[in-house]
Amino acid sequence: MENMEVVMGLIMNAGDAKASAVEAIQAAKAGDFDKADASLEHANEALVGAHRSQTEMLTKAAQGEKIEIGIYMVHAQDHLMTAIAFKDLAVEFVELYKKLAA
Hints:
Layout: H1 4-29, H2 33-62, H3 71-101
Helix pairs in contact: 1-2, 1-3, 2-3
């Protein structure tokens, strides 16, 4: 069975990162660039948490522990990749709104 603690860490942190990225875009759209920047920082922190969970799993695999790749792990990795892409796009949107406001 998969290490559910690692899987849940990935899912929760990735979801938090994506939600913060959405919040950053919404704040920038409203002209609140301080909030947008803070939300992007929070998204980055959540992604660090997700990467810690992922690194834990990779370390176990490197040490020879058998890591099962099941539907929950695939789902968690999907959440992580989506959150990373969304955060990257949010950075671009915030910068665009800043330029439009200037």
